[in-house]
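Input:
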Amino acid sequence: MNELSRTLKTDEITQLVLKKTLDIVCGKWRLYIIFQLTDQACRYGELRRRIPEVSEKVLVQELKELVALGVIEKTTYGETPPRVEYSLTERGRKVLPILLQLKTVGETFLEV
Amino acid sequence: MNELSRTLKTDEITQLVLKKTLDIVCGKWRLYIIFQLTDQACRYGELRRRIPEVSEKVLVQELKELVALGVIEKTTYGETPPRVEYSLTERGRKVLPILLQLKTVGETFLEV
DNA sequence: CCTTATACTAACCTTTTGGTGGGTAACCTA
DNA sequence: TAGGTTACCCACCAAAAGGTTAGTATAAGG
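Output:
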């Protein structure tokens, strides 16, 4: 019984961990956005221009979510016209190599 | 113009690659299913019992999708009651280490 | 004083994903 | 002959994800 409850608990933790990962990774554009910020911070408009296929609403929404998750951070300069920059957080930079490796997964399954 | 079209093409390839990756990874239960097959093949019913939270329909559906993607394979033994086993394909085993690393991502963002 | 630029918000709609509750075939055992 | 076991299928439904279109504040530039 004790062992069972320990097993259950481990499963629950694994599920939590995986859920968090999926929150960060899933969503059609999240990885794409993260990869755009690999080297430097990027303004909102610049992101729009670099990923023209994503709709405005979704981009804003995804950026907000990634900020809430702690993957990226937002810096607002009180200027007009407004200037806002997005960049990776420390944690974001920490996991970036793993996320970049995910390309290998896609490549492996696209090979003939 | 040549450079632009080359850039566009690269972007398209990146998008294809990422899409393929997301197909494999996303979905509430896909990673979970893949991880269950790390060491040995597993029967359908065994998977059901190991992941009780997933509904029957969704499990079947996810298994089918993973087979179609080439991540896992299905072996049917013509017995009654039926026996069906799922296991990782060669490609599946190849990318498994990368997928396992994804746990690190979740852990990083769950830390206090 | 009208336009332009930037970084958004809000209302609304469609598609995709995940889930429930039933049913099925085939053989074995009691 | 009734019930158990296994690995599914089908019709239907709710919620989440993704997308379109229009509108906003502010200041600088012509």
